[in-house]
Write the structure tokens for this entry.
Amino acid sequence: AQKVTQAQTEISVVEKEDVTLDCVYETRDTTYYLFWYKQPPSGELVFLIRRNSFDEQNEISGRYSWNFQKSTSSFNFTITASQVVDSAVYFCALSEAWYQGGSEKLVFGKGTKLTVNP
Amino acid sequence: GAGVSQSPRYKVTKRGQDVALRCDPISGHVSLYWYRQALGQGPEFLTYFNYEAQQDKSGLPNDRFSAERPEGSISTLTIQRTEQRDSAMYRCASSSNREPSGNTIYFGEGSWLTVV
């Protein structure tokens, strides 16, 4: 069975600090996809990144970076120089490889609430 | 449309009433999903469709919940004889299943359901 664990329930930082959100996953599949979504206080779920299990290169997008470590089944998310607008709940999610005809559903972690204080 | 559209955004209903939640996916998206999210929790899968075919309904909690997508576009999630425990945000999402976005799921703003 697939499972996503976000052990950090809440994190509070001061603006300009760097912060890392942890995500650990479990799956028996050799091919799978990992995602991060952001849920700001307004409530919508915003897609941030998709990564397949064959691509272990770290990715950077502006102040955001993601570290995929297959050996430890982790897909951590780092925000550099955090800003108040980064305050949100962040969800990590996992799905089986859709092109293999497997279930396409996403399994979400419980989320990490990030508060960035001015 | 440009994004996933859901209606109503907010619904308050009395226990025992039936409720229908509507979802209009991103134009051209093949797959449509329904998720439920309780306060303080991550979204939980309910069901999904490829075109008009319901591929997986394993997440529907009981037979009071049903969903349809008769023409492969708009979908309706129906909850019969609502109970207070059904109160949650119901999120609809869609994916194109074509690269570059592939199986990336894009969510609507959700429908808040409160059963009193």
In short: Chain B touches chain A at residues 31, 33, 40-45, 48, 55-56, 59, 89, 91, 93, 95, 97, 101-107, 109-110 (CB under 8 Å).
